[in-house]
């Protein structure tokens, strides 16, 4: 006869709970040439992504490329050590005075990590 285990019976975590508990928002650090710093690029939540596209809408069924460039950076750039947002809406005018190449590298990394379409990325590249 087998001895009973003193350990409680483990139950499988339901699929729904596994999905809702999954850590599916990675942050990738990139080195920004010209600034010589590492910047974290975060994955947007579904709500943040929706807000991003709302802020970038041109009101005619498309996107404003200027808005897309700055909004993707404001929405995704974080301190790689703390994951705190680096910029806010109030920083956009200051960002406009920074290197276009540096901003472009941040925007491209953010679009790639967040799996935004080539058409949407093209709007940023037009800028």
Element layout with pairings:
Blueprint (H helix, E strand, L loop, with lengths): L14 H7 L5 E6 L4 E6 L3 H11 L8 H12 E2 L13 H4 L4 H14 L4 H9 L1
Helix pairs in contact: 2-3, 3-5, 3-6, 5-6
Structure description:
- The chain is mainly α and 127 residues long.
- It has one domain: Phage tail assembly chaperone gp13-like (rbstp2171, 2-Layer Sandwich).
- The chain is built from six helices and three strands.
- It has a three-stranded antiparallel beta sheet with strand order 1-2-3.
Features:
single chain; 127 residues; mainly alpha; three-stranded antiparallel β-sheet; 3 strands; 45% helix; 11% strand
N- to C-terminal separation? 75 Å
CATH architecture label name: 2-Layer Sandwich
In terms of structural class, how would the helical and strand content be classed? mainly alpha
- Approximately what portion of the residues adopt beta-strand conformation? 5-15%
Q: Total number of β-strand segments?
A: 3
Q: Categorize the overall geometry.
A: globular
The biggest beta sheet is recorded as: 3 strands, antiparallel
**What pattern of helices and strands is seen along the backbone?**
HEEHHEHHH
Helix fraction bin: 40-55%
Rg, alpha carbons? 20 Å
Text of the CATH class: Alpha Beta
């Amino acid at each position: 006869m087998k001895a009973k285990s003193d350990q409680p019976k483990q139950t499988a975590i339901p699929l729904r709970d596994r999905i809702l508990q999954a850590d599916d928002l990675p942050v990738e650090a990139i080195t920004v040439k010209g600034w010589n710093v590492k910047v974290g690029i975060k994955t947007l939540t579904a709500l943040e992504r929706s807000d991003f596209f709302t802020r970038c809408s041109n009101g005619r069924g498309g996107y404003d490329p200027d808005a897309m460039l700055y909004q993707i950076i404001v929405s995704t750039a974080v301190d790689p050590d703390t994951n705190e947002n680096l910029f806010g809406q109030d920083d956009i005018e200051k960002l406009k005075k920074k290197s276009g190449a540096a901003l472009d590298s941040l925007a491209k990394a953010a679009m790639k990590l967040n799996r935004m379409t080539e058409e949407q990325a093209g709007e940023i590249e037009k800028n």
